[in-house]
């Protein structure tokens, strides 16, 4: 079977909801990452067979096929490049990578850009996405679901609380994990670890135009006492805003190509895609599926967790990566080595390609070989992608 390779992987620095990226239209924000992979690869638009873009909140200014509109807004693509927008909840752009890889591995396409965008600043309060993220309560009902799951409130927040209880994590465990996320993100930012993956976005500020290149959500003054003092989201629970991913604006993109495209265009690969897995399980606890998806991915790849050098496990809520570590027996020192969504932000539809950009560049910086990325997703679904750095 033909191989699929990653040639470029970029992301914008995250912007808080209502923050530094709030004034950038999501179409233009997405186009920024698309243009970056084109500029860095030196490809002509005619070489691109498709663009697959993840976006969860496909309404308002992210409606009307935001992927296609981003292609049209791009400086380096244009009318002749097709695009599609997909929604697999928080794993949307990780699924975009997998769709791109499958297209290349099937031999039907040679050059595909997997990408994602989410402008959470434009997602209305009270919408499904914001309601779940902020309040932790689901009001999505259907007769079919009610028959199978009577009285269930579909809530990622409640799923996170269920994971914390099931796996025996205390509030202090969650607070300490959140602090460590900020500490790693601070160290990565100060050391320049993100420089090769971040594409700057020009923004208007009261002081004049600036280029946004630093993740806005990082708390450079974070302390354990400060994190521990944040109000509980539920009086009987353990989760706080400080131990949850930050609502975030951002975009990201990964260029996936065939071996033939490497030869035809003189491209140098960063990584080879080694395994693609997606599984589904309990939709009520919802966020636990990365544990079992990882088991399947490793089994199908003929690998053990100790064979993997770095892991990116999305920090939707602190209990998720903690439960993943406990279940897999993975080394905590290899997990989210540059910080995760608790510090860096979670731009929903863009997080899959965002994490891949971080993983690819972290492997390269450390001279390591294998990386594994996984995301929990609404409805009890999870993606796992294993890559081999080249």
Automatic annotation (TrEMBL):
InterPro entries for the chain: Thiolase, Thiolase-like, Thiolase_C, Thiolase_CS, Thiolase_N
Keyword Kinase: no
Thiolase N-terminal domain location: 5-260
UniProt entry keywords in alphabetical sequence: Acyltransferase, Transferase
Record PROSITE patterns: THIOLASE_2
One Pfam family it belongs to: Thiolase_N
Record domain Thiolase C-terminal: where: 267-388
NCBIfam families: AcCoA-C-Actrans, PRK06504.1
Entry's family note: Belongs to the thiolase-like superfamily. Thiolase family.
Protein name: Acetyl-CoA C-acetyltransferase
Organism of provenance: Qipengyuania qiaonensis
């Amino acid at each position: 079977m033909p191989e699929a390779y990653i040639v470029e992987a970029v992301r914008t620095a995250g912007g808080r909801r209502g923050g530094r990226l709030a004034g950038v239209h999501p179409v233009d924000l997405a186009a920024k990452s698309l243009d970056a992979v084109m500029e860095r690869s030196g490809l002509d638009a005619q070489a691109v067979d498709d663009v697959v873009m993840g976006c969860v909140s496909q309404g308002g200014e992210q409606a009307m096929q935001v992927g296609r509109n981003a292609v049209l807004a791009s400086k380096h693509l244009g009318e002749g490049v097709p695009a599609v927008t997909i929604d697999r909840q928080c794993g949307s752009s990780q699924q975009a990578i997998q769709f791109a890889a499958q297209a290349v591995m099937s031999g039907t396409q040679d050059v595909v850009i997997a990408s994602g965008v989410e402008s959470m600043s434009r997602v209305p309060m009270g919408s499904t996405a914001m309601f779940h993220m902020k309040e932790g309560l689901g009001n999505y009902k259907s007769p079919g679901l009610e028959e199978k799951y009577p009285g269930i409130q579909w809530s990622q927040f409640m799923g996170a609380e269920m994971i914390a209880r099931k796996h025996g994590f205390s509030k202090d465990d969650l607070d300490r994990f959140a602090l460590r996320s900020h500490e790693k993100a601070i160290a990565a930012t100060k050391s320049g670890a993100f420089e090769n993956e971040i594409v700057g976005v020009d923004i208007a500020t009261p002081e004049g135009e600036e280029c946004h290149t630093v993740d806005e959500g990082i708390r450079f003054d974070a302390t354990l006492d400060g994190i521990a003092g944040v109000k509980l989201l539920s009086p009987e629970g353990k989760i706080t805003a400080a131990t949850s991913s930050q609502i975030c604006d951002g975009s990201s993109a990964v260029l996936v190509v065939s071996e033939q495209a490497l030869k035809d265009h003189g491209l140098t690969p960063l990584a080879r895609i080694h395994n693609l897995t997606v599984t589904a399980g309990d939709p009520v606890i919802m966020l636990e599926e990365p544990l079992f998806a990882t088991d399947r991915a490793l089994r199908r790849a003929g690998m053990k967790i100790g064979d993997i050098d770095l892991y990116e496990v999305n920090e939707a809520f602190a209990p998720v990566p903690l439960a993943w570590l406990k279940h897999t027996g993975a080394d905590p020192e290899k997990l989210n080595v540059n910080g995760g969504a608790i510090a860096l932000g979670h731009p929903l539809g863009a997080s899959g390609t965002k994490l891949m950009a971080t993983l690819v560049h972290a492997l390269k910086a450390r001279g390591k070989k294998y990386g594994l990325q996984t995301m929990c997703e609404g409805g009890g679904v999870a993606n796992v992608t294993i890559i081999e750095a080249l």
